[in-house]
Amino acid sequence: MIASDPRTPLNKAFIGIAGLIGAGKTTLATSLGEHLSLPVHFEPVIDNEYLADFYRDTARYAFAMQIYLLNRRFQQHQEIIWRGTGGVQDRTIYEDAIFAKTLRDLGQLDERDYQTYVSLFRNMSNFMCRPNLIVYLDVKPTKSLERVHTRNRGVESGLTLAYLERLYGNYEEFIGEISRTIPVLRVEWNEFWETEKLADSISKAYTQHSFIRELTERV
Fold first, then answer.
1. CA 3 – CA 16 distance, rounded (Å)
2. Which residues sit opposite 134 in a β-bridge?
3. What is the strand order of the sheet 133-138 is part of?
4. Which residues are catalytic?
5. What is the pLDDT of residues 27-45, one digit of tens each?
6. Are 168 and 140 in contact (CB under 8 A)?
7. Is 8 strand, coil or helix?
8. Tens digit of pLDDT for each residue in 80-132?
9. What angle do CA 26, 115, 23 make, to 5 degrees?
10. pLDDT of residue 205
11. What's the DSSP call for residue 85?
């Protein structure tokens, strides 16, 4: 196992797991953390005090929800850096901007609020060290919606395919942009991989120091 080899390039690495709602980020983050002996930092869901209100009245709570998530994610991000032990983060702080943009596109976030959010994020980003690697789980919107229904979180029952398709399009744009500054590993994730094999593939790809590599075969 990779975790047993202290020479692995992912020792003390900061790895972000990115992807659509229901992609399987939490499951993979947990498994990778175990295999690489890295602490895992989960997305705030159970203790998210805005979540139910956001899904009940999205337009009203969109801005508050985005600010809440930005604050929590920034806290996680900085904690990983300050501890110096590396970590796996279940959704990165950079992805929150994708959701804010999607809400703006769909008319559920006021343009003024969106610009305030973007300005705040840019100011905060001046104090952030970048992750060593982002693993993007490429899951198509139809598969994402299927997995959302399977896990059956009541607050997510109103999610639509149209929303996920718009979100996916913004994710694709985001991946192209973020890969200019942070190495991105795109993993075809409509079918799950065995974690140990994926961890090994991630480690090998990371040593090549290239931007946007793709893993499409479970070798």
1. 18
2. 16, 184
3. 40-41, 87-90, 14-19, 133-138, 184-188, 213-215
4. 90
5. 889 988 888 889 999 887 7
6. yes
7. coil
8. 999 988 999 999 999 999 999 999 999 999 999 999 999 999 999 888 999 99
9. 15
10. 72
11. S
The DSSP code sequence of 59-84 is: HHHHHHHHHHHHHHHHHHHHHHHHH-
pTM attached to this predicted model: 0.86
Residue 215's pLDDT is what? 52
Task: For residue 143, give every residue at least 6 positions away whose Cβ sits within 8 Å of its Cβ, in sequence order, or none.
Answer: 190
Tokens for 51? 């979540």
Which spans in the chain are helix H? Answer: 25-36, 51-56, 58-83, 96-105, 111-125, 141-151, 161-178, 195-207
Q: Which candidate, 68, 19, 43, 48, places its Cα nearest to that of 167?
A: 19
Which residues have a Cβ under 8 Å from the Cβ of 61 and sit 6 or more positions away? 50, 53, 54
CA proximity to 99, closest of 159, 52, 189, 14: 159
**What tokens appear for 105 in the block?**
């596109």
